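Tokens for DUF2917 domain-containing protein. Go.
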Amino acid sequence: MSNDDPVAHFRVDLPRRALFTVQDIAGVSIACRSGCVWLTLDDDPRDLVLEAGEQFEGDIHRRVLVSAFEDSNIEVRHALPAALPAPVFSRPDAKHRRRAQPQADGLTPACT
């Protein structure tokens, strides 16, 4: 990704006590542009505090939670786009739809 790619980097305004999640921090950097944020990585004993002008570079596949101590602005670089839900297509003919029928145990299967 180039630095001109809008997906490669973006800024997020976080009001005080707001929470922002990056699902996989490996290869991603988070820079605090204003305010003060607290970073917590899953299964990592470290707690990191970033003030304006400081940044963190992720080097391991973990989720990170970013919490704003005060109104803050962060910049996230090299993040992959989140998976988008698949589009839902409606069929014009309703007779093709099947309803799930309860099983002998009274439970309805999730998919039919």
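Strands lie at 9-14, 19-22, 29-34, 36-41, 47-51, 55-57, 64-68, 72-77.
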